[in-house]
Please model this.
Amino acid sequence: MEEDDVLAARRVEATSIVNTYMGWSAGASFIPLPFADLAAVTLVQVKMVADLAKLYEVPFSRNVVKTIIASLLGSLVPAGVARGASSLIKAIPGVGTVLGALTSPVFTTASTYAIGKVFIRHFEAGGNVMNLDPDSIRDHFKSDFEEGVSKASDEPSETKKAAA
Model:
């Protein structure tokens, strides 16, 4: 198998990993307890990066990845505020659960997509978890996030089916 074929096959597998975890993060966002949903989504995103690191045969550090994810999500303010707010709003009896369920899945799916894309791009460029600088990829992350929002809210997808 030629190197280009190996890279193409790896990219297909990486995309499949990201799509799978988009569905898991959307599902995790439906946890009705405030902030428990955020913790679950973070675990899903960290596991996704672990799987990508394994695929690209690069070292993985859970703590470093959690820090990178937090930094990237923090760059989405005010969208990052929306993530916490959609979780906190679930504390309002009745209507809170409904409102949180309407806002949370789009944000979590889009952020999972963007995180997956930036790590794939970084790993394909020869990088690893330890040398990813969140400041250097913020623009790509924001662009990938917007693409993820579009995917999560406009297109019928396996992600939405998995979350249902």
Summary: Confidence is low (pLDDT under 50) at residues 79-85, 90-102, 157-164.
